[in-house]
Amino acid sequence: MENLNDQKQDLLAEDSSFMQAKLQRRSFLQFAGAGAAVVALTAAGCRKDRINTPLPSGVTLDFKDDFGVLNYAYALEQLEAAFYIQVASNPPSAFSSAERTYFQDIQFHEIAHREFFKRALSTAAIGSLEVDFSSINFSDRMSVLNAAKAFEDLGVAAYNGAGVRLTNTNFLVVAGQIVSVEARHAAYVRDMISNGSFADLGDAGFAGLNANASAGLDASLTPDKVLAIAGKFVKTKINVINL
Amino acid sequence: MNILNILDEIEKVDGEIYERLSPRRSAMKDFFNVGKKISLAALPLALGSMFQKAYGQTNPANVNEVLNFALTLEYLEYHFYNHALTNSTITFPNAASRQAITTIRDHELAHVTLLRTALGANAVTPFVDGDFDFTGAATFGTAFADVFSNYQTFLKVATAFEDTGVRAYKGQAPVLKGMQVLTTALQIHSVEARHAAHLRQMTAASLNVPLKPWIAYAANGNDTGIAQVNAVYAGEQNTKILDIEITGINGTAVTQTAAAESFDEFLTGSAVKTIANIFIRTRKLA
User: S-S: A236 plus which of A129, A199, B110, B147, CB 3.0-4.6 Å?
Assistant: First the structure.
């Protein structure tokens, strides 16, 4: 039944001039609705010998509603969880016992966040992302700490920047419940790298994250900017629409 | 020109247009009825002033209330750290600990300045050091009497203030939903969380207690073991988020303590006010 999606893609691709006409949402929905009907008819008559073209690769974050924002958070939590699972299961030999313990803790926090989004999104959840951590040396303490810092500061920037997109009050509160934990992680990891740098909002680590040291404001980035930075750690193609 | 169509179009991109135009939705319905009778020539003018009110610089009253609430908490924190740094007999164990408190003090002052700017003429009269009793004597007796002479007592109170601040901003986020000022509030909120994490580490080191940068599970929510600040941590033991149990979620090995740690909890405005008022002498929050 993958044909269903192929058919819809073909239908959309067929009339590209129609798509370029910057439709109003209402018109688009009418079109999509008609498309779905055509797809349904096609599906009704679909034959097994139909030639399959591969599905468009990757996952799609559709920011048209809160689910898109939650999936975006789910994607980032998948990334963080994968990183900490790898660190916690085989920590750098130079890690102190306290660092081993706290990286275990953080691992489970990120797993909890990931699984929360998976459960909350249910059938609307995107699939699993394939990660690319080839730029990280997992046997080197500083390489791991610097990667952790980058992930946590970016995570804080992501939640801070995406909060305003949420229309559901419950989701907004949950995002707040998570981001402060990410900020605690960030502060801890930063202190491990250089004690007292927990909130050095003007340092090199915050470059490009839109923090404001003189105003005492933390990082905040829109999803497109966050995904551009996170992209190097993800093999799976992430498509973004309606941003 | 059909005003109903215009508002309908705006509502598609701004679901709160009616709330922006008037806190009372019914008032807008009244306006529609009048609008139908207004002459076409007069309509653009009426619309112009209406939209200026809705999208102009003026904050809605409840937003100002939230920002002034935050401002008061920032004054509390700023004067607390400033007092410790400039007018106390606290012996900081090393340069790093003094520097950390200086960093935090400077952030709180920056937040005060930022919030005052956002509020403009609506900002509360500035709080001064004398407006606060940082020992909270009326409630706590002598428990924190040495807050400005004993480094460890100072750290205990500081940690409680920061963890309160984090919970306070979280609790007010719904009022700012969808507004630009929400992003600013979130950017302050996570800085407070960074402060809290660091102060917890300073407290752990100085008191030699296993306090983590994040709030661990405790039966009453309070993982600090300091009974006076129970109210600051009330509810932090929660492991259920939007009716989803986080402990062991989806068959994972997430323990009860990891579940409680992984989501910070919010505090209502009234709960925060009760805590803050312990330290405010006369200009208590209503």
Answer: A129
The nearest CA of chain B is from the CA of A198 a distance in Å of 6
The answer to whether A116 contacts B241, with C-beta atoms less than 8 Å apart, is yes
Higher pLDDT, A234 or A56: A234
The whole-chain average pLDDT of chain A stands at 84
Q: How far is B178 from chain A (nearest CA, A)?
A: 5
Instruction: Say whether domain B61-214+266-277 belongs to CATH 1.20.1260.10.
Output: yes
Q: Among candidates B258, B240, B253, B257, which has minimal Cα distance to A119?
A: B240
Q: A196–B111: do the CB atoms touch at under 8 Å?
A: no
Delimiting residues of CATH 1.20.1260.10 domain(s) in chain B: 61-214+266-277
Residue B163, SS3 per DSSP: helix
Q: Is A82 on the interface with B (CB under 8 A)?
A: no
- Give the closest residue to B167 by CA, choosing from B263, B62, B246, B285: B263
The position carrying tokens 């102009």 is: B56
State pLDDT tens for residues B32-63. 444 444 444 444 444 444 444 444 446 778 99
Cβ of B191 within 8 Å of Cβ of A180? The answer is no
A159 shares contact with chain B (CB less than 8 Å): yes
Query: Is 0.90 surpassed by the pTM of this model?
Result: no
C-beta of residue A183 within 8 angstroms of C-beta of residue B169: no
Residues of chain A neighbouring B206 (CB-CB closer than 8 A): none
Structure token digits, residue B96: 């790093």
C-alpha span between B47 and B49 (Å, rounded): 6
Which residues contact residue A28 at a Cβ distance below 8 angstroms, ignoring those fewer than 6 apart? none
Longest dimension (CA), chain A: 67
Residues 6+ apart with CB under 8 A from A174: A116, B241, B242, B263
* Chain A residues lying within 8 Å of B99, measured CB to CB: 196
Residues in chain A: 243
